[in-house]
Design a protein that fits this description.
Elements lengths: L1 H24 L2 E9 L9 E6 L7 E4 L5 E7 L2 E8 L6 E7 L10 E4 L12 E5 L5 E4 L4 E5 L4 E9 L2 E9 L12 E4 L7 E4 L2 E5 L1
Parallel strand pairs: 1-7
Antiparallel strand pairs: 1-4, 2-3, 2-5, 5-6, 8-9, 8-15, 9-10, 10-11, 11-12, 12-13, 13-14, 14-15
């Protein structure tokens, strides 16, 4: 009886240990921060993680308002992560995911603009009477500008008779511009002879 009881205890211990290892192996977490090349957090980036060995089902997540994501209950394994969002070049990353890692400062993963918008064929500069605001639209889809409180840069695209300006970097008040709310400047004709920035008219230099 003692031998049988000991054997049962050993089997139970082995099963318990195996279950603990399985639970530990599936208790890993992956997290990250997605930004543009100016360091602005990107909301709504789609993340897919597939095990490099082909095992298991792919995991998915999406970045929050702060550009962060977290995947819980992952296997302890090597994964291929894919990051996608409209308007940016997708990125891939090989990462080892394991349990027990303490949360620290997240390393940013930068996504570049895909450059597929409609831009001007030549660089054009515009300036209001008195000098500000002023804006230069470049042929690569980037722009530089200056207003009464600072200067900055970003990317733009042309839609009909409007230029949609997304301010990516600005050295004035932090809350004045947001990448979620583009600045729209309009032109009276497709030759871009002038721009209207709100109530202000900017003449082409």
């Amino acid at each position: 009886m003692r031998i049988r009881a000991l054997a049962v205890m050993l089997v139970m211990t082995a099963c318990g240990t195996s279950a603990a290892h399985m639970a530990l192996a599936q208790n890993a977490m992956a997290e990250g921060l997605l930004t543009d090349t100016w360091g602005n957090p990107l909301q709504g980036v789609e993340i897919e993680a597939r095990r490099a060995d082909g095992g298991g089902a792919p995991r998915t997540a999406e970045t929050d308002d702060d550009g962060e994501f977290r995947m819980m209950g992952m296997d302890s394994a090597t994964y291929e992560f894919t990051y996608r969002i409209f308007g940016y070049i997708g990125a891939r990353q090989i990462r080892d995911v394991s349990p027990g890692r303490r949360r620290g400062r997240l390393t940013a993963i930068e996504l570049e603009l895909d450059g597929s918008g409609l831009y001007l064929q030549e660089e054009l500069s515009f300036e209001a009477e008195g000098g500000t605001p002023s804006v230069t639209l470049k042929s690569d889809g980037m722009f530089e500008f200056e207003d009464a409180e600072g200067e900055g840069e970003g990317n733009y695209s042309i839609e009909d008779l409007s230029a949609i300006l997304i301010v990516r970097d600005y050295d004035g008040p932090d809350d004045k511009y947001s990448i979620a709310e583009p600045v729209v400047v309009t032109t009276p004709d497709n030759s871009f002879s002038s721009l209207a920035w709100g109530e202000t008219s900017l003449a082409r230099n």
